[in-house]
Amino acid sequence: MWNIKYDCHLHSDFSGDCDTPAAQMVERALALGLEGLYFTEHEDPDAPPSDCDFSVDFGAYFSRMPQLQEQYRGRIRIGIGMEFGIQPHLPGRFLELSRRYPFDFIIASLHNLNNMDPYYPSYFEGRSERDCYEEFFRVQYETLRQCEPASFDTLGHMDYIVRYGPNRNRDYSYEAYAELIDPILRLLIENGKCLELNTGGLKYGLGEPNPCVGVLRRYRALGGELVTVGSDAHEPEYLGFRFGYAAALLQELGFRYYTVFEQRNARQLPL
Predict the structure, then answer these.
(1) Percent with pLDDT over 90 in the chain
(2) What is the pLDDT of residues 88-101, one digit of tens each?
(3) Phi, psi (5° rounding) for residue 205?
(4) d(Cα 87, Cα 80) in Å, to the nearest integer?
(5) Residues 39/66, Cβ–Cβ less than 8 Å
(6) What local confidence, expressed as pLDDT, does residue 54 receive?
(7) Residue 135: which region, alpha, beta or left (left: phi > 0; alpha: psi -120 to 50)?
(8) What class, spelled out in words, does domain 6-270 have in CATH?
(9) Which regions of the chain are under pLDDT 50?
(10) SS3 label, residue 120
């Protein structure tokens, strides 16, 4: 069994892009021998028009999740989380939400910029891949600078954009974008925030997690120690995806612990 016993990034049918009932995710986690999981549903205000509604029904969510916690009490830890889709004009909204609701854990993720999502090929039309990647990291840094540290706990899939670029990660590396990535990593460290290792990159066929190994190595070299680990699963079969690999990689890079949260309080667990 893996050393990593908590999946800190997953979705259920409270997210607009997921149809899986939360209980199915919990049952899958139990079958895998996990000790805990965190539902981190998409809250993406002002997302570009699409087939999905990336807003959470907070009333329904905070009604259902405590019921689920009670149903599985003593069998598995169920954390109530959120994935905030950060944008430069939204830090105040997310700070207000983080204070209003009793979250266990909050991910900050950049999905949308300039009213576009790199998930769609149209984001890359008429521009070089490098220009698009540079813009993504630049906007991510500027947005995080505006976010109050109290409004989130970890930065999700930091290089999300490479999942969908025309050449994906063929020409991408930490070294190629170091001058834009380093300020983000330093900002996280200065503010005591975590960096997420998201195994979704492996599911998408990148051969690496998000962020890539080079970014994780650089984060550790800069003094970063706080990492959360999540599968970004939207279907039960991807829960805990490649967590054995993730644990081995983190150990190889010099990390000794991974981080989980309860009522926004961090706890370090050995790898």
Answers:
(1) 94
(2) 999 999 999 999 99
(3) 80, 20
(4) 22
(5) no
(6) 86
(7) alpha
(8) alpha beta
(9) none
(10) coil
Q: Which two tokens stand for residue 181?
A: 């990535």
**Rounded to an integer, what distance in angstroms lies between the CA atom of residue 105 and that of residue 41?**
11
- CA angle 85–87–90, rounded 5-degree value: 95
Nearest to 177 by CA among 136, 147, 121: 136
Nearest to 146 by CA among 89, 84, 85: 89
Cis omega (within 30 of 0) for bond into 211? yes
Tokens of 194: 């975590």
Whose structure tokens read 């950049």?
A: 110
pLDDT on residue 30: 98
d(CA 26, CA 73): 12
Reported in sequence order, the residue ranges of 91-211 that DSSP labels E, i.e. its strands, are 105-109, 154-155, 194-198
Coil vs helix vs strand at 269? strand
Distance CA 257, CA 228 (A): 9
Rounded Cα–Cα distance for residues 148 and 150 (Å): 5
Tokens 């087939």 locate to: 51
CA distances from 141 to 137, 169, 214 (A): 6, 20, 18
- Structure confidence at residue 48 (pLDDT): 80
| H or E stretch at 42 | strand 36-43
Q: For 59-73, b where at least 16 C-beta lie within 10 A, e where not — what string?
A: eebeebbeebeeebe
pLDDT of res. 179: 98
